[in-house]
Amino acid sequence: MNHTSSALQHLAHVPIAADLPMQLGSITVTPFSTPHDSVDPLGFALRAGSCRVCILSDIGFLPESVRNRLRNCDLLVIESNHDLEMLRTGPYPWSLKQRVMSNYGHLSNEALAYFLNEHVDGLQRKIMLTHLSRQNNHPQIAYISATRAVEKKCRDAEIIISMQDEISDIVEM
């Protein structure tokens, strides 16, 4: 048996459930339910000392229950999956387009911009846009949409793009 196999035998199975915080070293991780067309989709709120990070992807819309979880975070890591016009005119079959645009699909640049403009509390120092579609989005479109949306409330927030096929830079908080 090699060292890796031996190490894997000692890993514990830890069930993850919404609203049941767990401790990972000095980080408290609190999963929360999200709307998506999968089994028990979750977002995550992480706290280490006074720093709070929220991670959210694979979500079709942001109901109040989720919006409340995203308050008071220093870093918001959130999906900006598609540009509506690119999706509508793109190569996907109509059934897939409908799924992606549905409330249980993926968050569009426009839906994220609305959230950032109307519901964000202004405390975010950094906002990382993730899960950008290669077929139905462009990093510059997502960046401009998010930047315009936060101009009033989070003027000093840094917008960061995370690409699917590249390792993101380390984000220090």
Report the principal-axis shape.
Answer: globular
- The overall strand count is 7
Strand content: 15-25%
What's the level 1 CATH class? Alpha Beta
Radius of gyration: 17 Å
Cα distance spanning the termini: 40 Å
SSE run? HEEEEHEHHHEHE
Adjacency order of strands in the biggest sheet: 1-2-3-4-5-6-7
Structural class by SSE content = alpha/beta
In percent, how helical is the residue content?
25-40%
* Name of the CATH homologous superfamily: Ribonuclease Z/Hydroxyacylglutathione hydrolase-like
User: According to CATH, what is the topology?
Assistant: Metallo-beta-lactamase, Chain A
Residue ranges: pLDDT <50 for 5 or more in a row? none
Shape-level CATH architecture = 4-Layer Sandwich
Query: Could you give a short account of the major beta sheet?
Result: 7 strands, mixed
Nutshell version of this structure?
This protein is of the alpha/beta class and about 170 residues long.
Overview of the structural elements:
By secondary structure, this protein is α/β, with parallel strands linked by helices. It has one domain (18-161): Ribonuclease Z/Hydroxyacylglutathione hydrolase-like (Metallo-beta-lactamase, Chain A). 28% of the residues lie in helices and 21% in strands. The chain contains six helices and seven strands. The chain has helices at residues 3-9, 64-69, 84-89, 94-101, 109-118, 139-150; strands at 22-24, 27-33, 42-48, 51-56, 75-79, 126-130, 158-161. Strands 1-2-3-4-5-6-7 form a seven-stranded mixed β-sheet, with helices on one face. Helix 5 (109-118) packs parallel to helix 6 (139-150). The longest helix has 12 residues, at 139-150. The radius of gyration is 17 Å and the shape is globular. 31% of the residues are buried. The mean pLDDT is 90.
